[in-house]
Amino acid sequence: MPDLLLELFSEEIPARMQARAAEDMRKLVTDRLVDAGLVYEGAKAFATPRRLALTVHGIPLRQPDLKEERKGPKVGAPEQAIAGFLRAAGLTSIDQAKVQSDKKGDFYVAVTEKKGRPAIDVIAEIVPEVVRAFPWPKSMRWGSGRLNWVRPLHSIVATFGPETEEPEIVPFTIDGIAAGNQTRGHRFMAPTAFTVRHFDDYAAKLQDAKVVLDPARRAEMISTDAKNLAFAQGFELVEDEGLLAEVSGLVEWPVVLMGAFDRAFLSIPNEVIRATIRNNQKCFVLRDPQTAKLVNKFILVANEEASDDGKAIVAGNERVIRARLSDAKFFYETDLKTRLEVRLPKFEQIVFHEKLGTQEQRISRIVALAGQLAPLVGADVAKAERAAQLCKADLLTEVVGEFPELQGLMGRYYAEAQNEDEAIAHACEDHYKPKGPDDLVPSDPISVAVALADKIDTLVGFWAIDDKPTGSKDPYALRRAALGVIRIILDNNLPLAPRGVVEWHFEHQFKKQYLDVASAIDNLMVFFEDRLTVQLRDQRARHDLVDSVLSNASLVEGHRLTLIVCRIEALGKFLDTDDGKNLLAGVKRASNIIRIEEKKDKREYTGAPNPALYKQDEEMALAEAIAVAKRDASTAVAKEDFAAVMTAMAKLRPFVDTFFDKVTVNVDDKALRENRLKLLNEIREATRAVADFSRIEG
Amino acid sequence: MRPQRSFQGLILALQRYWADRGCVILQPYDMEVGAGTFHPATTLRVLGPRPWNAAYVQPSRRPKDGRYGENPNRLQHYYQLQVILKPSPEDLQELYLKSLYAIGIDPKLHDIRFVEDDWESPTLGAWGLGWECWCDGMEVSQFTYFQQVAGFECAPVSGELTYGLERLAMYVQGVENVFELNFNGRDGAQKVTYGDIFLQAEQEYSRHNFEYADTAMLFEQFKMAEAACRKYLEAGWNGERTRHALALPAYDQCIKASHVFNLLDARGVISVTERQSYILRVRELAKACGEAWLATEGGGAA
């Protein structure tokens, strides 16, 4: 079966768009093929800076023929109806229709056959449509044309045919560009056009013309060569997936070279050197495997084998990197001349958010909250406040202005340089943490206080102005902030109830702005609970256990986060034991009976049962056991000893089992029946000390 | 006058190269602008249907970039060489690469790359797609296909090439400090450096831009330029608003307002929120000027 080869040859496609574009092209073309009845065997797409290429193999030569039956009027129907039917079915005479019969009698059927078209003609229609509507993130026009493409499109290869034969050119033209079988190689090393046939031929000829078509292979070549070059000199490559992907999209023929810079620049913080070399020059840095410190070398990836083996290229890159590092050094040294606190008044001029005031106002809120939180997290109040005061100051430094991703880290360096307390310096960096699910959670009390204050201020602020995340829109990363709060509290086992903290902050900072504070806080607590649920689910906690505990001890009601998690853990362990499983079964059975009877009788069976009405020993025993379990459980809850709560619950189990064995609930004596239903309800009530068992599955 | 030997040799080589390819070689516009794009030969000529090929050097002023002559790479006054080709020719990339060859950059020896860089000018209501052109890791030019200018779609599309002349000259001369560039290509006592000509100016203008520029006067000048621009725009229209007779003088005032704003910005007297509104005011002028230009003969009006 024939194969399709397609290449769209253009001016340089932005590196960040290439992978997605190749995938889009594969999907759009093959989906359309399948829609047209052309089921193919396989497809693969590639991208280089100058081309998108697609190979689809095993396409049938023709579309299958389609047979269509259209039911018409009854035989002997009025002439008008028959004429209408003929028109609709595209027949010229009723003789062309077949007659079929069903239980209502004979009727006409028009059978039309749609012949399948040659695949090449179908492809000639599909490709131009895909090209014209291609989903580039940004596209443009050029010259006097009207076509939109990511950058000017110069030529198109489109061949179709069986592997063993000379393929045909798929006949189409897009805005004056006719599909053909000619392409070009590397811009400088092999600029002459050449003819290609099938994909294998195409890929091999490109390789000869100094183009590595497959981006994965280019990345692998770069990575291997870079590591080898580094290793040969006793260094280690600082690996960087994002940079590797980008650089692979900037070259068709990767040539890896090593350059050096003056050792004196190593006095700049390593992160600043790396950011300078990476962001501005798209080069890799190297480190000494012994010390893990950067060395004065870098790896660059050129796009050609130069006639002097790259000497001029290396020299040029070294010059640029020298100039960039001089700038960085100048920025860094300039920054060191100004103490962080001296920068603070400038924040009065910088708006944090239109409705949430200036950065200066935000910082003073964080200071207040960090001071409030400090005693609760074991931090020195004055230090926590100082850290909060300074933690954003590096945003005004030259280095962070140049490399925003170094915020926090530079704050730490500058704080250290001005001899701040070590914990304060670390808080400048660590208060942003955790930045994502894989990031570390701060543990030093000062960092913890500032990190919590920073995140909680953000959350409370946006809730106060009613600008909450909706659906996939979360421009201020509030979900991440809430999850950060949860992780900090849990990982550090802090005795904090989020509600209390949030209420305090609302009360002192935002009350005027929001009328219904209580419901805003309720809503924020539900948001926290949702994050908690997601977080625990990721840790493979059972969703139903989380639910059953939260419905009993929620953040909305002001419970402490750590205790909620302890409950969930204790409950999970308990339910893994026989006692737990049987008690759960008993509670569920009791709940079911009550639910059914309540529905039947249209009333509730709550309230204490009457001991005078107990008739059987088993009833009495159960009632006593419940009383004991309740008492022991509430003592244990007060001590926050959830294992003991479970032990108390476990003791109920034999009494519940025996009760169900020996006692009939639905007896004719109405008073007795009511009393027994109430006793069943007591089982349910007793277990509520831990969780709502009815929400537990199984 | 080899381009590798002198700053003026570089300029002459590029001008000759583009002259040989049919460009009109213009002289700089006689007003203070932030970039070559502001020259009416670009901003206005890219609008409308008429073909236009031009190249010119434009002194460009960025008051905020002044460093008192102490930074080897940053200047508040520098030169751009601007090439504008409308419609953008099919082989624009080739033409550009050959221009590099003409100044001594051989692509078989140097690593030349087109790295994504989308261009946008909020004050001109303009945007385009293109690249930074890298030579051995250094950005030597901007390459842009104009999609919209003054809020109007560009049809046909113009191709714009902007060479940062000082940087390019530093590269081909192998000099680390802009002030050490050889300007006239002579040696010994006859040698004139970039610093000989511009160092004092950088020092004085940095003082002016950051410390002394008369802000009261500048605020007033902004208002005056804005008002004059509006006045000329209004007066230029014919009764049916089909033809305009004052598009160029009106646009001069728009340029003026833009530069005055840059000075005020450098003096640090414009707050963050005000900044946005000033940019918007200049953009409104630019848009109205573009509209007026399209109603002139140069803009292709019938």
Summarize the structure.
The complex is a heterodimer of chains A (698) and B (302). By secondary structure, chain A is α+β, with helices and mostly antiparallel strands.
Describe the structure.
The complex is a heterodimer of chains A (about 700) and B (about 300). By secondary structure, chain A is of the alpha+beta class. Chain A folds into five domains: about 5-60 and about 120-210, Alpha-Beta Plaits (2-Layer Sandwich), CATH 3.30.70; about 65-115, no CATH class; about 215-335, no CATH class; about 340-570, Hypothetical protein af1432, CATH 1.10.3210; about 575-695, Isoleucyl-tRNA Synthetase, Domain 1. Chain A has 25 helices and 18 strands. In chain A, the strands form five sheets. In chain A, strands 1, 2, 3, 7, 8, 9 and 10 form a seven-stranded mixed β-sheet that branches. The mean pLDDT of chain A is about 90. Chain B is of the alpha+beta class. Chain B has two domains: about 5-210, Bira Bifunctional Protein, Domain 2 (BirA Bifunctional Protein, domain 2); about 215-295, Up-down Bundle (Methane Monooxygenase Hydroxylase, Chain G, domain 1), CATH 1.20.58. Helices cover about 40% and strands about 20% of the residues of chain B. The longest helix of chain B is centred in the C-terminal third of the chain and has 23 residues, at about 270-295. The radius of gyration of chain B is 20 Å and the shape is globular. In chain B, about 50% of the residues are buried. The model of chain B has no long low-confidence stretch (mean pLDDT about 95). Classes of the chains: A alpha+beta (about 700), B alpha+beta (about 300). The interface of A and B includes residues 306 and 320 of A.
